[in-house]
Design a protein that fits this description.
The complex is a heterodimer of chains A (about 375) and B (about 250). By secondary structure, chain A is α/β, with parallel strands linked by helices. Chain A is about 65% helix and about 5% strand. In chain B, about 35% of the residues lie in helices and about 25% in strands. Classes of the chains: A alpha/beta (about 375), B alpha/beta (about 250). At the A-B interface, α1 and α8 of A face α2 and α3 of B. Chain A: It is found in: Cell membrane.
């Protein structure tokens, strides 16, 4: 135990001296938490639409003004032919083209049915998809109104349409920040655990001091704990800092218990530190370690529901997602912070994380050789 | 094992694929001896030394260091040796005192003793005004002297020095060898590799490795006699010019 004390003393001294890394570790939460949630708003607000009105009737004008006033669309041009409108998509100036056919009003009034052509630019998939949906709902709404106008005089209560209203539970105004802030807290721990530890140990390899360590009677576990504990402490401080910023800037206070949240953060950090350690045992220099860590952290971020939902993933992708410790913490972190889930609700996820921590660290310790 | 031997090696071999880095070398080093381990670049010196320090497993042959087996008792070996590698290996972003404290601590030197010995050490090295400076700020010669002092700080039985004076000026090299003599006088066995033939003259006995094999082993005077030459330089030249391997 005494030896561990000397190692820890040395590590903390070195961390304190490396002011660049230290500053980055503490700037990271501030910058990420202040900028990302504001910048990453997936609501699509300005969809450029080009309209071809072949009908020039009251109804078609009503529909157009309804679209223009919805707040989501910007009518960039009104053309006389579909071909001309399409040119706007081709030039990237419009995301959508809506073509109102001649006889629109007449058909609607007489037959109650009319088709409208909508073409979307699918290069920007999200924008086009969401734009298409918005447009659809505006038109549906328009339909209902027409329907009401037509039948209204006779029997409004016969109106059989089912009205769907969404309520966003746990995030009532569907604000993106509530989704993103908990994810960034996880990202912070991921960066510190995954990158900083790996680089720290590999640096000792590069400089040659690890050889000097390997020739001392320091035990494997002493060396590894000596490396893990300082970064674990820093990680927990950064996490606390992150929570404080979420509260000060966004007013987000975890609804669940702090104890549960910290228990998860603690175990998650151990798992990620083990991951960093594992990378360091396989890399010879910092460039290698950086590249490998980056490769995996990219997968973690894209596959684990940081910014996109994992529910829509195909089965095989979900399997990969479940195999990252990140996915489990992102999920529970949101549950605890936004929903107020108790430890009982998330205990399976806790076991997963404990498993990851055990496997990654065990593997790293096994692969770290003082003699080879 | 014989009581007065610090290192005993028999047919020690390290093979990487079909490359014999160390090829059946056998020798013994007596306690308190200054043993020079010579060889051209790539001759296998560092590999052999790493095996003896418990950093690397041999492929075959036997060896004991301080009475411990290099296959099974590496950790016991590590408690009883000091090692100074080719690469400078103190922490440049720790101060002189912090480095001493750390290495003293991990070898289990008691706290009070660390304090006492480091005060003495700073005095002997004349580093009073540098004790609280970062090691990275010291000139190379001082760094090497400090590294050596740290390697023997825990009073090991044997100290392994891998080209300790590489890149150091002649005056400092001379001082360095004074330190080695002092350590030897206090009973520490010195196992040293070098490329400087004047340094080879300072050793009690010398071995010369060529292409992974041990080609000569005797005192400098006897070797010169045997090869009928006047300097160690010529002994080394005669042995090493037949070498097929070069470069590390």
């Amino acid at each position: 135990m005494k030896v561990l004390g000397f190692i820890l003393q040395k590590e903390f001294r070195q961390i304190r001296r490396d002011t660049t890394i230290l500053r980055i570790m503490f700037m990271l939460p501030i910058i990420q938490l202040v900028i990302f949630p504001l910048a990453m708003d997936f609501d699509v607000k300005s969809i450029n639409i080009s309209i071809v009105d072949n009908d020039h009737s009251t109804y078609s004008q009503k529909l157009i003004s309804k679209i223009a006033s919805s707040g989501y669309f910007k009518v960039v041009s009104a053309e006389t032919s579909f071909k001309k409108s399409l040119a706007y998509i081709e030039k990237g100036q419009a995301d959508l083209v809506m073509e109102i056919p001649a006889g629109f009003e007449r058909n609607l009034v007489r037959e109650g049915v009319q088709k409208i052509g909508i073409s979307v630019d699918a290069i920007n998939g999200t924008k086009a998809g969401i734009g298409g949906q918005y447009l659809n709902s505006i038109i549906t709404d328009f339909n209902v109104n027409i329907d009401m106008n037509l039948r209204g005089a006779i029997a409004p209560e016969q109106q059989g349409a089912i009205d769907i209203r969404y309520t966003n539970w746990f995030n009532p105004r569907a604000e993106y920040k509530y989704n993103v802030v908990p994810a960034i807290l996880v990202l912070l721990l991921t960066m510190i655990g995954g990158f900083v530890t790996a680089l720290n140990i590999v640096k000792e390899k590069e400089v040659g001091t690890i050889e000097q360590i390997n020739v001392t009677p320091i035990k494997k576990w002493e060396f590894i704990l000596g490396k893990l504990i300082p970064f674990w402490v820093i990680g927990m401080i950064v996490f606390t800092l992150g929570l404080t910023i979420s509260w000060l800037v966004y007013g987000i206070v975890p609804r669940g218990s702090f104890l549960t949240l910290y228990a998860f953060a603690a175990v998650y950090l151990i798992a990620l530190l083990g991951f960093g350690l594992l990378i360091s045992t396989y890399s010879d220099n910092q460039v290698q370690a950086m590249f490998v860590a980056f490769f995996f952290i990219m997968i973690f971020i894209l596959m684990s529901g940081f910014f996109t939902s994992t529910d829509g993933m195909p089965g095989w992708a979900k399997v990969i997602s479940d195999m990252t410790p990140v996915a489990h913490f992102v999920k529970t972190d949101r549950m605890i912070i936004l929903k107020g889930s108790s430890f009982d609700d998330v205990k399976m996820e806790f076991l997963y994380l404990v498993g990851f921590a055990a496997v990654l660290n065990g593997w790293a310790i096994w692969n770290y050789r003082k003699t080879n | 094992m014989e009581d007065n031997k610090a290192i005993i090696c028999k047919d020690l071999t390290k093979q990487f694929g079909d490359f014999y880095a160390v090829n059946k070398i056998s020798f013994e080093v007596a306690k308190g001896e200054i043993f020079g381990f010579l060889g051209a670049n790539g001759a296998g010196k560092t590999t052999a030394m790493r095996i003896l320090c418990g950093l690397s497993y041999p492929t075959s042959g036997t060896a004991t260091v301080a009475g411990f087996d290099v296959y099974k008792q590496q950790e016991s070996i590590k408690k009883n040796i000091g090692y100074m590698s080719q690469k400078f290996s103190l922490y440049e972003n720790l101060t002189v005192l912090e480095n001493i404290e750390f290495y003293g601590g991990v070898y289990g030197v008691p706290g009070k003793e660390i304090k006492k010995r480091s005060d003495e050490l700073i005095m002997t090295l004349g580093l009073q005004s540098e004790a609280k400076k970062l090691v990275g700020e010291l000139p190379l010669g001082w760094k090497q002297k400090l590294a050596f002092s740290v390697a023997i700080f825990h009073r090991p039985q044997i100290v392994f020095l891998d080209e300790p004076t590489g890149g150091v000026d002649p005056v400092t090299r001379r001082q360095f060898w004074d330190m080695i003599y002092q350590a030897a006088a206090s009973g520490i066995t010195i196992f040293v590799t070098t490329h400087y033939m004047d340094e080879a003259e300072y050793c009690n006995r010398i071995s010369v490795m060529v292409d992974g094999k041990l080609e000569a082993l005797d005192s400098p005077a006897n070797l010169k006699k045997e090869f009928g030459v006047n300097s160690m330089d010529e002994v080394f030249y005669q042995l090493a010019r037949g070498a097929k391997r070069s470069g590390e």
